[in-house]
Structure formats: C-alpha cells, structure tokens
Amino acid sequence: RFQLMAAARTAWRRAHDAFNQRKRNPPQPAAPQFGRENVQLAGRRMLSNELLQRGALLAIILTGFLLRLFRLAFRELRGDESFGFFFSLSSPGQIAARTLALQEPHPIGSYLLQHAWLQVAGTHEFALRFIPVFAGTAAIPLVFHLGKQLRLGAPAALTASLFLAVNAYAIWHSQDARMYSLSLALTVAATILALRVIRLPQSWLAPAGYAVCAAAVLNVHYYAAFIILAHNFFVLFLLLRGIWMHRSQRRVGQLSETGPSGDRALIMRWSFAQLLTLALCAPWFVTAWQTLVGYGGNGDSPAFGPMLWRSLGVFTLGETVPHPIWRFAGGLLAGSVIVAGIALSLRNKDSVEDSSGPLAGNGPKSQTDGESRIGPEDQQQSLSGQPSVTLFLLLYLLIPLLATWISSRQRPIFDERYLAAALPPFLLLIAVSAARMSSWVDTHLRWRWRFWVDGDAGAPSAPDYAAHRSSLLARIPLGRISAAALALLVVAANVYSLQNHYSGSTSLGWRALAGTLDRWSAGLPADDVRIAANFPDPTLSYYYKGDVQQFMIPPRPHDADGAAEVVDLQIRNDVFRIILPVSPAPNWDAAGIAPNALAAGFQKVLQEQVGIFPVHLYTRPDPQSWRNVGALFVNGVTLERAQLSPETLTPGGVLVVHMDWRGDQATLTGGEKIFVHLINEDGGILSQADPILQLNSAEGFTSLGLRLPAEPPPGPLRLITGLYDASLEGAPKTVTENGMDSVVLSEFEIEATEK
Questions:
Q1: Which helix (H) or strand (E) segment is 83 a member of?
Q2: Average pLDDT over all residues of the chain
Q3: Phi/psi of residue 627, each to 5°?
Q4: What is the rounded distance in angstroms from the CA atom of residue 642 to the CA atom of residue 657?
Q5: Quick check: 70 and 502 in contact, CB under 8 A?
Q6: Residue 353, SS3?
Q7: Alpha carbon 528 to chain centroid distance?
Q8: DSSP 3-state assignment of 617?
Q9: Does the pLDDT at position 388 exceed 50?
C-alpha cells in the first residue's frame, strides 16, 4: 500500500509540473500560409473515409430514387408517352417494321426494352414510367463514379451526384415514359468506359465494353452520337498533346506521359472500340438512313444566344418555374459560375485537380480517390492537370449543344429534351467550379477577413502574428461557406421547381374525359355511337377502355373535303350519336373543320367543358324509332312524334330527346319555348331543357340533350314536355286541347340500391 501511494504521488507531481510548464510556455502555433493554393479543409478529411463516402452516396441515391417515385402516376400521359406505349405493344419485328414505315425519328432500343417490361409489369402509368425512374436513379452513382474517374475527388463527385439527384430537369425526364432518362444513364456509362479505354493500355475488355454501351445508347437515341463525337475529340486532343510533348521533351501536369508507344496503344484500343461500335450499329443505321436524313423536325430553330440560355436554364432549374425569366437568371448564374471556374483553372493550372470539392479545398490525396489503386501501367494516358479535365467536361457539354443547334439551323429540331445526355458534365462543372471558387476565397480573402475581425494583430505583417490566437469569428471558413451557399442555392432552386412540378402541373383532363365518354355513350349499342377526334393523339385510346369505336376528323391535316366524306360514311353506317372532344390542334384542325362537318349531318345537342376539352355531343334520330304522340295544343301547335335515345335512364349519362313539332308560325307570338323536364313523383325537377320552339324545321325535328343526375332518387320518374310563352308576363304554359299543361313522353322506375 505504501508503494502504491508513493507511485500515485510521483505521477501526480509529474503531471502537475508538466501542466505548469505548458502554462508558462504555451506552444507556438504555426503561421498559416495564406498565399498557398492548396488549402486542406475539414470536409476533405472527413470524406477521405471510404465508408463515409459510400454512406453519403447511398443517402443521395435513396433521395434521388424517392424524388423520382413521388407522385409518379399523378400526371396523365403525354401524347409522346402514349405513342411509345402503343408502339411497344407490337412484337419486336413489328416494332422495327413500323419504325421504318412511319419514319419514327427515334431508334428501336427503348421500344424493345419497354415491350419486354410491359409483359412483366403491366400497363399502368406507374409501370410505364418505372424504366426512366430506374435509369435516372442509376445515373446518380454513375456521375459519382465519373467524377472519381476524372480525379475530381469525393466532395466534388458527391456534390455533382447530389445536384443530379434533386435536379428538376432530370426528375421530369425520369418521370416521363420516354428514352431520354435512359439515354442520360447510358451516355454517362459510355463516358466512364471511354476513360477506362484511355487509362488501361493492356485491357481489351474496356474497349469492348465501351463499344457495347455506345451501340446500346445509339439505339436508344440518335443524339447520343454527339456524346461519342465528344469522346473522339478528346482522344484526338490527347494524341496531339502527346505528339507535341514528345517533340518538345517536356512534361505538363503531374501524371507521366509516355512516348509514341503509349500513343500507338491508345490508337489501337480506341480504333478497335470505334470500329466495333460502328459494326454493332451499322445494320440498323443503314436500314433507317432515310428516316435519319428525311426527318422534318418537331421543335424550333433558335439563335445561338437563346439556345444557350434555354439549355443552361433548364439544366439549372428545369421547366416548371413560373416565368422564363427564372430560367434565364438560372442559366446566367450557372454560366457565370462555370466561366469563373474555368478562369481559376487556367490561372492555377499547376495546382492539383484531385483535391477540389465544393465543401472542401485542396489537400493531400486520399486512397479512396483511387490514386493508390492505379499502378504505373494504368497511367500511360491520363487527364493530367486541371486544363485537361476542364477541356474534357467542356467538350462533353458543348459538343452536344452545338451539334444540336447547328442541326436545327437546317430544320426545326431543337428541343431541350434532346439535351438530357449533356446534363452530367454541366453539373460536374458547377461542382468543380464551386470548389475552385472556395479555394480562391480561402487563399485571397481569408487573411483580409481575419485582419478585419481581429484588427492589426490579425495582419500577416504583425510582429506577433504567428503567436496570435484568432478569435472564433476570424476562424470562420469563408471558402467552405461560400461553396456551401452556392450548393444550397442550386438545391433550393430545384426544390422550388420540383414543388411546381409535383403540385402545380395542371391535368389536361384525359381521365375525366374517359369517364365522360363512358357516361355519354352508356345505354346505347356500341355500333350506334362513335367517338370523333380532331387530332391524332393516342392518349385518348390509352385512357378510354370502352367498346365505342373512334375515328379521325379531318382524316388529314386541314382536309375539309375528307371530313365531309367521313361524316357521310358515319351516316351510311347507321351511327346516331357522335361525341367530339375538341383538342387544340393548330397543326391539324385550325379552322374548326371537325365541328362544322359534323353539324352538317348531325344536330349538336350538348356541350360540356372537361379539362381543356370542349366536349360536343352530336345526334340524329333513328328513322325506325319514332313514336307517334299527336298532342294538339290550344295555339294550334301539334307534337306529332317523339323519340328517346336511349330508352332507359343511365345515371350520369345523357338522354337525347327528338321531337317533331308542327303548326303555323304566323299564329304565334314568337316567344314560345319548349320545356322538357325529368321529374320525380313529387314534381321535383331533376333535369330540364328549354329550347326555342321551331316549327316545320328543315331537319323535320328538334333535338335536345338532358344531363341525367349521377344518383337519381329511387321511385317513379316521368319525362314531360310542353310549351310556354316567355314573351308574356309570368311565362304562362300553353295547355293542350284536353286542358293538360304537359305531355308525358315516358315513365321510368328507379330501383333503390343498397349502400
């Protein structure tokens, strides 16, 4: 016990002496080197842990997946989505044949994939759009991997992945049952494989994988050829740079360059990849060549300035912002950030690219960035230095934009949706530019901030500057805060745009229209009714599942004569009711040909607004279904005959009444009107119509439509008609010669339903 107490006293004495010594002579802090370019920040050290990288990436992927799943089936299908759905229902051989016959401007790859998927998943909107959701989600880790391949570092790669996960433009395409999201994912994968072809001289698997991926994306969207073109331009740059460096016997950047042998190996691998890609694509491209050169376009031909701002604007904010000025402002901000990043890259071209990140500055390389895993044999060709990486990303971004714009000068084919494959380099440039701006702020502004907060003691020229302990406010990391603010601004702007996308997207009314068509055709034989369309939009056929046949009027754009022939054909086929939802169709029926042609052979009895569609109901009586009435009124007017269509009541439907009124118009006041009422046993009116009395009309009859209640009351109902004079005070009814003020046309019995 005595020895233990002595040891404890000795340990306490030594600790006490050491504490007093430290208090008397505190350690001198090393002077910060504010003039250096490489500023190591906490975010870089934190993300050097590979488990943290994977956890952060997994969280970003999950966020992007949930954002793409949210309200996936809320929006109705667009016309292009419906077209793709019906196109994919055919067999693979029929898909190829119809693509050539219809000169479909997109290749068959996405249609074949959707055909296989529909056999398993069904035809609901959710199932149709799940392939783009999967492709858009897969693009998130692919962008991260692309950033790591470019040696941008984990922070920049994760930030670009986060931008893609919440990007409103990417999410819109991920919730659209078309090929653009799939094209985005496949082009990123092809770009990653292109970098592996450049960096792996001994492997022939990378060129083969690149060729397969490039051929796949070219069979999904023809515009992917512009991404392949960007790859080839960059390889050409590497070869020319290698020749110049070999001749000048100088080194540029940090990674070693080989001589002609390395260039020859790259030429061999790259040529093999391109030839294999061409061989895989040639059969279809040769077959579809006439479609490629003959497509007239379905977009516009903007000038260069509007094209650039429209492209950068949708990349930044998407298309669901309140006003185009928002997209212009977003494009201007994004363009300014990219230009600033490029300027800083050229200014600091000798600094290390790999250590940049929006939330971290430059610092020692971590093994998680993949540098330690790349042996000397993998570095015969590399993207050494900031300028090479910046050039690669600029080629990846600008060549698709410029090629699409140049193509649109000859024909109107420019559309922002075609540019989806150019989104990843845009987001990577934003992330890297934010990192460079962060480093610049720390390098050039941090000491000024410290001087402003701490006064003369915080100035680098102060005598006790090295020993000065900065205040808490002076230690604020301005670079990280500025980069984080920029990243938060991008994320917040896209969240706002997404809010408009999720909640502000107005429905066109296809689902409601399908219900209206069901109700208005109910109770009649399917052969007696037709649905007319004044524009060839397949979306109606997707939502309407009834048995009534459809036809196109006019059959061709602006074809009035063809529309008249179509109406005559319907009359010859004993069609008695036609429902026309009028679509806005300036390119097909700008002059209202369809309503005018139908009015020449049918009577319009009803019109109702459903969504954006004015729905017209046209009818004509069946000559074999007239019932004699013979009701004579005291003013000399006679209701000779009447006809109901249908003969029974259908809840929520339309009851059409045809009546033949006869008399001498000269004996009337001119204020007479017809009333037609559907009443219950207490005399309560459930539905009514009051057209003007027309005697001896050219058609020989008067037609009207009654909207029936969705839930008619149980019990007996009666349909009555009569006359009243609206020009007289009190609008008195005109009685029949029997003294009745109405005539019963029909009686119905509604049975009570169990709830």
A1: helix 79-88
A2: 84
A3: -120, 130
A4: 7
A5: yes
A6: helix
A7: 40
A8: strand
A9: yes
Strands annotated E in 554-626: 577-581, 603-610, 613-619
Listed in sequence order, the residues at least 6 apart from 578 whose beta carbon sits closer than 8 Å to its beta carbon are: 529, 530, 531, 532, 570, 598, 602, 617, 618, 619
**Mean pLDDT across the stretch 17-28?**
52
d(CA 535, CA 446): 63
* Weakest mean pLDDT among 288-292, 400-404, 516-520: 288-292
CA atoms within 13 A on the CB side of 35: 2
Rounded CA Rg of the chain: 38
Phi and psi at residue 388, to the nearest 5°: -65, -45
CB atoms within 10 A of CB 72: 18
Beta strands in 386-465 (DSSP E): none
**Each residue's pLDDT tens digit, 322-355:** 888 989 999 999 999 999 999 888 876 544 434 3
Residue 38 pLDDT exceeds 50: no
Q: How confident is the model at residue 146 (pLDDT cuts 50, 70, 90)?
A: very high
| pLDDT over 50 at 212, yes or no | yes
pTM above 0.90, yes or no: no
CA pair distance 173, 185, nearest whole angstrom: 12
Res. 36 pLDDT band, cuts 50 70 90: very low
Q: How far apart are CA 257 and CA 385, in angstroms?
A: 12
- Residue 341's identity, in one-letter code, is G
Question: Where do we find the tokens 């950030």?
Answer: 337
What's residue 368's pLDDT? 39
What the block records as the tokens of 251 is 């080194």
Please state, in angstroms and rounded to a whole number, the distance separating the CA atoms of residues 286 and 289.
Answer: 5
Domains of the chain: 49-72+132-292+303-444+475-486 (no CATH), 76-128 (no CATH), 510-619 (3.40.190), 627-750 (2.60.40.1930)
pLDDT score at 386: 63
pLDDT above 90 coverage of the chain, percent: 63
CA terminus-to-terminus distance, the chain: 90
Q: How far apart are CA 708 and CA 695, in angstroms?
A: 27
CA-based nearest residue to 369, from 391, 389, 354, 384: 354
